[in-house]
Amino acid sequence: MQFTINGQRREADVDVRTTLLDLLREHLALTGSKKGCDHGQCGACTVLVNGRRINSCLTLAVMHQDDEITTIEGLGSPERLHSLQAAFVAHDGYQCGYCTPGQICSAVGMLGEVAAGWGSHVSADLSSPGLNTDEIAERMSGNLCRCAAYPNIRAAIAEVGADHASAAATSARREGVSA
């Protein structure tokens, strides 16, 4: 099977019953995604597939041939952290750190959903969903933190979400000015 993982073309010869999580961890040595519950209930295994967040323990690797898969290892590096990684550090959005890779990958996907205008269960206005504390909590509810660092996780996501919103507004103004 062939995959594009973190921007690199990878091949693996695995049983067709191998989950995407097991492919990543056991066959490709990408151990950032964690096996928490192995039932899709905790979100520790969250990765991005074609920009959308999924629980990698619930899907077979064979289903994702030729997809763009991004794990926590593909988001940033110690020298150049992704904005959410930096925000998690700044806001102490982790304690034991076990759930952190899944939390960050899920937050990246969630911010993409907000940017695309997708509403959530708590969206007051489906025509322009916002990113307040309730929205973040609802949208991240599939990712559990046993240490209960939720206030810090939400603060980190809110900071990056505000930066994204500000950048989008600036871009819209520029397009309006040049039109």
TrEMBL record:
Transmembrane segments: none annotated. InterPro entries: 2Fe-2S-bd, 2Fe-2S-bd_dom_sf, 2Fe-2S_ferredoxin-like_sf, 2Fe-2S_ferredoxin-type, 2Fe2S_fd_BS, Aldehyde_Oxdr_Iron-Sulfur, Beta-grasp_dom_sf. Residues 1-75 form the 2Fe-2S ferredoxin-type domain. One of its GO terms (molecular function) is 2 iron, 2 sulfur cluster binding. CDD domains: fer2 (cd00207). It comes from the Bacteria. Keywords: 2Fe-2S, Iron, Iron-sulfur, Metal-binding, Oxidoreductase. The keyword DNA repair does not apply. The keyword Ribonucleoprotein does not apply. This is Xanthine dehydrogenase YagT iron-sulfur-binding subunit. It comes from Sphingomonas jinjuensis. The lineage of its organism: Bacteria, Pseudomonadati, Pseudomonadota, Alphaproteobacteria, Sphingomonadales.
